[in-house]
Design brief:
single chain; mainly alpha; about 5% strand; two-stranded parallel ribbon
């Protein structure tokens, strides 16, 4: 029985609306049992420990813009949310083939993997939002097949699939386009596997447990091409990557965008004040603020100094919209998570208001894109921020945006004062044709007087320094 139906029965029992005669009325014991089950489930959900492990969420409804391809996998399902989708069923045979390949090369039995995952089944189930209506055996089998496929894909991408024993004409791993499509599916919020399950399965394959750091680095290497900055990300630069990443692949990639800066991972709390929106690019240019490319691989490291706004390069591909949308959904859903990516997307949305703004940033090499037109880029940011619940006072760009807006306001005040002066001149001296003629005549007379004064001054100086003046002066002296 649905909760709404149970609620309707409770209202009817209290003397409220009557149940339609066309609907079958359950017996009294059935009503009591249903209500008790609902209340029991509600009590379980209310216990804080029931969501302590929650990390793989349903995609927020308010972020869905009608484009299901942005958050629904198109090639492969990972985890229980899309496991039964018919259009993803064809990949199940390749998962089985992958598991068979792993067992044969490692000389392992299937039960070793099933029994190991069975031990952490409860912990894995707790990572997913809502009740997972799958039997224990079915859930464990799904975790093993999905997890082994992901691990094999990561290792093959890093070490080479042929080195791992796959045929050069493998129907999945030898086709680069297939890997790219799988890559886009694997970065989606609803298509995740707990990271500790991948750690467990890789440890079984290698015969060495605790592979958390290696798994995290394999994730970064696999998703590096999705990085919004064109600079190559050095995964070996972060020796303590695994200390920060603990939930799933999307979170690992999110951490890489933050460059493992712990201060960026926490929500910033400021006193509630007025909302702050950065002026558009056109307004900034009119205010004399320069826009420059900043050479860094940290996409969110935007800087404003000496009336110069420096923005790192942003590479926009066909899948960038889906990537940003799922990262935003993760930030909106995960507990005590910062809105680092959301802040950057909103900042660019406020900056870009037209295709001309995109063209200007493209000419500055701040934006590189392969979309059909500059207008598509502008539409992309508009769609991402259309129904977004975001408080920009918690943004790491809040102070910068305030400084930029202050500089614009100072310019506007000066510009407004000049407009006032211009209005006074217009109303006082240009209100009729005779005033204009008088002012022009006065100006011409002033110029002529200045020219005549300069000519007279020059004649006097020429006379004083001429030879005739000196000769006449000496003659006077000689006579005396």
């Amino acid at each position: 029985m649905e909760p709404s139906e149970a609620l309707r029965i409770m209202i009817n029992d209290n003397g409220g609306e009557n149940v339609s005669a066309d609907e079958p009325s359950p017996s009294e014991p059935e009503r009591v049992i249903c209500i008790k089950e609902e209340l029991k489930q509600g009590c379980q959900d209310h216990v804080p420990g029931s969501w302590a492990q929650l990390s793989i969420y349903r995609f927020p409804h308010y972020l869905k813009d009608g484009n299901d391809k942005a958050w629904v996998p198109q090639i492969i399902s990972l985890g229980p949310y899309h496991h039964s989708k018919e259009h993803l069923h064809h990949m199940e045979q390749h998962k089985l083939r992958c598991l068979h390949h792993i067992l044969r090369r490692a000389n392992h039995e299937r039960d070793l993997y099933l029994d190991s995952v069975k031990e952490v089944e409860e912990r894995a189930r707790a990572c997913y939002e809502g009740t997972i209506s799958m039997s224990s055996d079915k859930f464990v089998e799904m975790m093993v097949l999905d997890g082994c496929f992901v691990i094999k894909l990561f290792r093959g991408f890093n070490e080479g699939f042929e080195k791992l024993g796959y045929h050069p004409n493998d129907p999945i791993f030898s086709i680069w386009e297939s890997i790219l499509k799988i890559q886009q599916d694997m970065i989606m919020l609803e298509n995740q596997i707990p990271l500790f399950v991948l750690d467990l399965l890789l440890g079984l394959q290698l015969g060495n447990p605790n592979q958390k750091e290696r798994v995290a680095k394999l994730v970064i290497y696999f998703f590096d091409s999705l990085h919004p900055n064109s600079s190559t990300f050095d995964i070996y630069k972060f020796n303590r990557l695994s200390d920060h990443c603990s939930v799933h692949c999307l979170e690992v990639f999110w951490w890489s965008l933050l460059h493992l800066n712990p201060t960026r991972s926490k929500t910033m709390h400021r006193p509630r004040s007025w909302k702050l929106l950065i002026p558009s690019l056109t307004e900034l240019r009119h205010a004399g603020i320069q826009i420059r490319l900043k050479y860094t691989d940290d996409w969110g490291d935007i800087e404003f100094k000496d009336r110069v706004l420096s923005i790192p390069q942003l590479v926009i591909r066909d899948g960038t919209g889906s990537l940003f949308l799922n990262l935003i959904a993760f930030e909106q859903s995960h507990f005590n998570c910062s809105n680092y990516v959301t802040s950057c997307v909103v900042f660019m949305h406020n900056l870009i208001k037209s295709s001309e703004d995109v063209q200007y940033l493209r000419n500055k090499r701040i934006i590189l894109h392969c979309l059909e037109s500059d207008a598509k880029v502008s539409d992309l940011f508009s769609r991402l921020c259309q129904e977004l619940a975001f408080d920009n006072q918690d943004s790491h760009l809040y102070d910068l945006s305030g400084e930029v807006k202050l500089q614009c306001h100072q310019y506007l005040r000066i510009y407004s004062r000049w407009n006032q002066w211009r209005a006074i001149l217009k109303n006082k001296y240009f209100d009729n044709p005779w005033s204009i003629i008088s002012l022009v005549a006065a100006f011409v007379l002033l110029v002529l007087t200045f020219i005549q004064s300069m000519a007279t001054t020059r004649w006097v100086l020429d006379f004083l320094y001429s030879g005739n003046y000196l000769t006449s002066t000496l003659g006077v002296i000689k006579v005396r």
